[in-house]
Specification:
Strand content: 5-15%
Distance between the termini: 6 Å
Structural class: alpha/beta
CATH architecture: Alpha-Beta Barrel
Shape: globular
Strand order of the largest sheet: 3-4-5-6-7-8-9-10
């Protein structure tokens, strides 16, 4: 029996609805706080809520909040947004990438994590199995001592490299998956190292059909995408609207190339909207409404022009595929 774990309890996969597969809603990453990078602090619950309401107004139903503990998540604020808007939220246990681990651990988290000053100190001094136990608790008991349980587990790696500590957290997350059956998500820096991640996961006996790999559109290489898709993993194209990295035509071409090769059931689409300047109600950006209101119609038009059924593909990317990807399969 399959289910999806949200902040408001477990639901049936068919209840998920139109889903963004990788977003950030309220977070204050200490790494960026220390450096005065205000744009990377989503620190106003009411402004974030307005963008979530925009998403809902266009038919959105669920958001996967991919914010791990080392990225300054605010679990309670996100739960309040879920309750006040009716949008279902899937939370995330696990870790991000190594350079962020210079972040300071908040005093209120030390009774849960241990008396460490930084995340890098915690990860260095804790065994893989003990880290796995922490991730398991966040899935089965709740995030950061709350009763809000994570609906996926996450790890991350750097640009063209995987550090020893990143390997450690990958293995911890893999072991937590085996215990909980929670779906796995990975951060790739600029879309690199996905195949290397996969080889490490194989060494932990992970079935790649339980995994989604983030930021695939940051590395718009159709051959690379095909090699990943062959493993059974989901590919997350979660940089929609970020024209500074590539035009939408490039992303759509990569997605349709995978569809041509028969991998339409392994594609997820989202925005990774993690800056004030990306949000409409923080700083006049395109906002959480952009994908559902603007990008989806464009994608349907381009797909139809090339002989595909654009509406059917949208239903797969935002409804059917997330319902399978984010399911716990007991």
């Amino acid at each position: 029996m399959s289910f999806i774990r949200t902040f408001n309890g477990d639901i049936k996969p068919e209840e998920l609805g139109f889903t963004y597969s990788h977003e950030h809603i309220v977070c204050r990453p200490d790494y960026w706080v220390q450096r005065g990078e205000d744009d990377l602090l989503l620190d106003d619950k009411e402004k974030s809520k307005k963008d979530v309401e925009d998403f809902k107004s266009h038919g959105g139903k669920t958001i996967v909040d991919a914010t791990a503990i080392d990225y300054g998540r605010d679990v309670k604020a996100v739960k309040e947004i879920s309750d006040e808007t009716g949008i279902q939220i899937v939370g995330t246990a696990g870790f991000n990438k190594s350079f962020l681990w210079e972040a300071r651990i908040k005093d209120e988290l030390k009774p849960i994590i241990g008396n460490y000053d930084t995340y890098v100190q915690w990860i260095e001094e804790t065994s893989i199995n003990k880290l796995a136990e922490f991730v398991i608790r966040e899935v089965e008991e709740g995030l950061e001592g709350t009763n809000l349980k994570a609906g996926q587990v996450k790890f991350g790696t750097g640009y063209n490299r995987i550090s020893p500590l990143e390997i450690k957290t990958l293995r911890a997350v893999a072991r937590a998956h085996h215990e909980t059956k929670a779906p796995i998500h990975s951060h790739t820096e600029a879309g690199t190292m996905a195949l290397e991640q996969i080889e490490l996961l194989k060494s932990e006996n992970i079935n790649l059909e339980y995994m989604s790999i983030g930021h695939m559109d940051r590395n718009p290489d159709p051959y690379y995408h095909e090699q990943i898709a062959k493993t059974g993993a989901f590919l997350s194209f979660d940089g929609i609207a970020k024209i500074k990295y590539a035009p939408e035509s490039t992303r759509i071409a990569c997605i349709l190339e995978l569809v041509k090769k028969g991998y339409e059931n392994q594609i997820l689409v989202s925005g990774d909207t993690a800056r004030k300047t990306y949000y409409k109600h923080y700083d006049y950006g395109l906002g959480l409404e952009y994908i559902i209101a603007k990008w989806v119609p464009r994608f349907i038009d381009e797909a139809n022009q090339q002989g595909f059924d654009g509406e059917n593909l949208v239903h797969k990317f935002f409804v059917e595929n997330p319902a399978r990807c984010f399911s716990f399969k007991k």
